[in-house]
Amino acid sequence: MHSTITKIDAEQADFTDPLRSYRDRFDLPDGVLYLDGNSLGALPKTVRQRVAKTISEEWGEQLIRSWNTADWVHLPQRVGRKIANLIGAGDGSVVTADSTSINLFKVLSAALDLNPGRSKIISERDNFPTDLYIAQGVAKQIGKGHRLVLSDAPSDIPDMLDEDAAVLMLTHVNYRNGYRHDMAALTKMAHDKGILVIWDLCHTAGAMPVDLTGAGADFAIGCGYKYLNGGPGAPAFLYVNPRHMGGFRQPLSGWFGHRAPFDFDPSYAPSSNIEQYLCGTPPVLAMVAMDEAMSLWDDVDMTAVRAKSVTLCDLFIQEVDSFADEFGLKLVTPRDADRRGSQVSYSCDNGYAIMQALIARGVVGDFRAPDIIRFGMTPLYLKFAEVKQAAAILRDILETRAWDAPEFQVRGAVT
Amino acid sequence: MHSTITKIDAEQADFTDPLRSYRDRFDLPDGVLYLDGNSLGALPKTVRQRVAKTISEEWGEQLIRSWNTADWVHLPQRVGRKIANLIGAGDGSVVTADSTSINLFKVLSAALDLNPGRSKIISERDNFPTDLYIAQGVAKQIGKGHRLVLSDAPSDIPDMLDEDAAVLMLTHVNYRNGYRHDMAALTKMAHDKGILVIWDLCHTAGAMPVDLTGAGADFAIGCGYKYLNGGPGAPAFLYVNPRHMGGFRQPLSGWFGHRAPFDFDPSYAPSSNIEQYLCGTPPVLAMVAMDEAMSLWDDVDMTAVRAKSVTLCDLFIQEVDSFADEFGLKLVTPRDADRRGSQVSYSCDNGYAIMQALIARGVVGDFRAPDIIRFGMTPLYLKFAEVKQAAAILRDILETRAWDAPEFQVRGAVT
């Protein structure tokens, strides 16, 4: 079987794509088919000018006064509100701050504090490692015998939810294989056993609609630099269900989390609102880039985003199906759209070299050790014709064994 | 007594200033006498272009590949090395990361882990509040009865250093009054009692030479946005004495602190080097701005910086001496240059309104509750003539009671 959709069909799909106008709002280099927006989102065109203005006018001319006049001081809340709109979170329940790892440290500490007398933190062995590392760091510092218990498959999780589990901590969409958990069902199962739930939305926010409020999630975290296009190492976000506000819950108790930071009181009095989850002075340049990137989402229909994401993934899977077996590519992403995020991943031998050969031909995806090649589908700026072409280039590289050249075997610092 | 140095003298001092060429490397607005570089440093001219290039070329065109090709992944170490040169720290002992508050959380946690069986964290009631808040957060999370014990005056500290003290945690130069501790003497006194020492260099780095290695300091932290001019909310730095490397010491164990972050191992194995003190993905745009700002320091003579700082402070103090008593301004900064940093502060009634009136006249300093007006002296871009003029404007505002206008009583979110 050859390709399942003709070139004309893909171009027709692009022509009728309700999201097609968004492509022009990004700077994308010529000759690149960018299937790595799930690692670093593309550059929204207006970011450069906005950051330049912040540097020249707000920093350079207004200097310290901009904390008030440009309202730098409330950037974490302002950007948080824009993200809240995409993830089904209410006003005042999301802030943008720090990194995903640090935000997980905050909310996991808070969750364990809220659920004393239980010792297990349940997660998955295949969760993104930093989440597991942070859990180990929190448990070690608390020193009360909390332990991380890891499932080997999603289907094992329900049986692990017992009376000794304090927190269920999952990444909604798996970074390697793109598997997507059923957020509402797992949250309910956990709550039925008195377990609090933290959702990592790194591979979710901006890729599909989410309803944290509807699911009753306790906490959520996520990054700004993937589907949200906030720039490399963009500030992360965190969500706290309003029912968990108050108390002195999270230990990264910097001055921006104080009830009255500019009173300079020597004793910590936590804000009883989402601001308690702020810590130090916000990184203004990074926040402004993130704020500008988020302004692009004001009028985006998330249902259309998800529909296009599903079709992009289906198209890529169908195209690769025609040669996958011949070259030993094994689809590790669920075929069932209801069980996956917005990426398509294959396990294969020589995956690193294959990905390098793809990148050399302009198809930018990425490799995840030990054997996964990953293709991210970003509905705001990816075309159906590009996805079809990327699959064709993959086929050509496999057929010609182009990946078997010495220059494609050499690894960089970041693989 | 009127002014102690004539206008001609100040201009002569500017003409012979060995640092005068640096002024041209900053963008400073016309009509502003900027005496708040100890809160937010001025904009180095090359930062805008460097950040624009990073956005357009590295993010926009090279996209994800820049983690390798532009070596984004090692920005924390590269910027750290530049800061290390200014603070007497050896290679591989400083990284740039996160915020000052978060970095304090890391090193205080490590210090308490290294010094078990002791319960006190010694600091000052007048330390910058976020340092005290973070200590409260660390102590609460560890839950082993650590308590923060605060001195009311620097002279009280030596007697507080007893066998139950685990850590002495001080800001080298006080943010309010500019008092400067004797780093070497206090570190030695603490070490003699088996106490580890953390120095906060927020008001030190870039303002004067520091010798962390010579003093034998255990840990240090500091921010990038004051005398280092890294931009609003710039990434902070931290120093770890090489004798304290290794172990699983700091609990913010994100993937960038792992021995091999890109192996994606589910178990945390800490780097045995300074990288252990990294946590999540570094904020590239903010790091690049900081890196560019730090490049300005390559050939700066820190002895000349300190000499000019002392003279700038002396000049301002002398000028204000001529009218301070008449208007109730009390100098709270030590007259002895060996006991102060690079700022001059006064306590006074109506300090908030006086500072607002100064700002309206172009003299930008700041107010710190309840009654301190603060003037920062930044040797790289401040002129003697400006300091003299600022004092004259302060005098005029006091003589005319210009501060007693309604518009100067209204407080912003940040005071």
Helix vs. strand class of chain A = alpha/beta
Question: In DSSP terms, counting alpha (H) and pi (I) runs of 4 or more, how many helices of chain A?
Answer: 13
In total, the number of domains of chain A comes to: 2
Question: What proportion strand of chain A?
Answer: 5-15%
> How many beta-strand runs of chain A?
15
Task: Summarize the structure in short.
Chain A has 415 residues and is an alpha/beta fold. The first copy, chain A, has 13 helices and 15 strands.
Overview of this protein structure:
Two copies of one chain form a homodimer. Chain A is an alpha/beta fold and 415 residues long. Chain A has two domains: 149 residues, Aspartate Aminotransferase, domain 1 (Alpha-Beta Complex), CATH 3.90.1150.10; 247 residues, 3-Layer(aba) Sandwich (Aspartate Aminotransferase, domain 2). Chain A starts with 6 loop residues before the first helix and ends in a 15-residue tail after the last helix.
